[in-house]
Every structure is written in structure tokens, then in C-alpha cells.
Design brief:
The protein is an all-alpha fold. The protein has helices at residues 10-27, 35-57, 61-87, 93-123. It has one domain: 23S rRNA-intervening sequence (de novo design (two linked rop proteins), Up-down Bundle), CATH 1.20.1440. α1 (10-27) packs antiparallel against α2. The model has no long low-confidence stretch (mean pLDDT 93).
């Protein structure tokens, strides 16, 4: 962990930016009419960044990895919700495709982070 802790993680920065964008999109009406789905999309985006932060602040790499997997699950939840929003006509295709690209990147970054921290946790055994 560096000087800023989880804030140094590029994957956390990208996840946090995604959550901020979702709230901005929701405020502008870009996430559609369904307030339940809109709120759930925002919550799952926040959950990705939050679990990355919580995991990185845990005392061990083993604990961190557990939270990183939860963040990965939240990413899958988010992807499901934006696909539903798109297919139901509440999210424009161009916005959906951009978000999907961001999700691909986040997923790869999360996978790499999990792999590295998991390797570190097994070294200490």
C-alpha cells in the first residue's frame, strides 16, 4: 500500500470515475425513466469502487482478494443492469457501448489485481 492507499490503484480510480459518470448520467436523464433500475445501476457502480477500497485497506492480501472478487461480482451486476437498460430502450446504444468498453477494461484490471494479490497472499504462507 502506498501513500494514498487504495487511491493509488488505477482500477479504483477508473471504478470511481464510472460511478461518478453514472450519477451524472442519471441526473441528466440519460439512464431512462425507471427510477428503480436507474438507482440500482448507480448503486452497483458505487459498489465496485467501494469494494476495491475496502479490500485494499484490509490487513492481509487474502482479505483484500475476497473484496476484489466482490467488486468483480458488482461489475457483473452493473453490466447486467446496463444491458437491461439498453435493451429496454432506456440507455442509448452509444452510451451502452462506451460503458461496455469501460467494463471490459475494468474486468481485465480487476483480474490482474486479483492474480497479483493472490500470489502475494500465498507467498506469505
Amino acid at each position: 500500500m502506498g501513500k494514498k492507499g487504495f487511491r493509488d490503484l488505477v482500477v479504483w480510480q477508473k471504478a470511481k470515475d464510472l460511478a461518478v459518470r453514472m450519477y451524472q448520467l442519471a441526473a441528466s436523464g440519460g439512464l431512462g425513466r425507471d427510477s428503480g433500475l436507474r438507482d440500482h445501476i448507480c448503486r452497483s457502480a458505487v459498489s465496485i469502487a467501494s469494494n476495491l477500497a475496502e479490500g485494499d485497506e484490509r490487513g492481509t492480501d487474502r482479505e483484500a482478494v475476497r473484496f476484489f472478487y466482490i467488486a468483480k461480482g458488482s461489475l457483473a451486476e452493473f453490466r447486467t443492469q446496463i444491458q437491461i437498460a439498453h435493451e429496454s430502450g432506456q440507455l442509448k446504444r452509444s452510451v451502452y457501448e462506451g460503458l461496455e468498453g469501460d467494463c471490459e477494461t475494468l474486468g481485465k484490471m480487476l483480474g490482474s489485481l486479483i492474480k497479483v494479490r493472490h500470489a502475494q497472499s500465498t507467498k506469505s504462507l
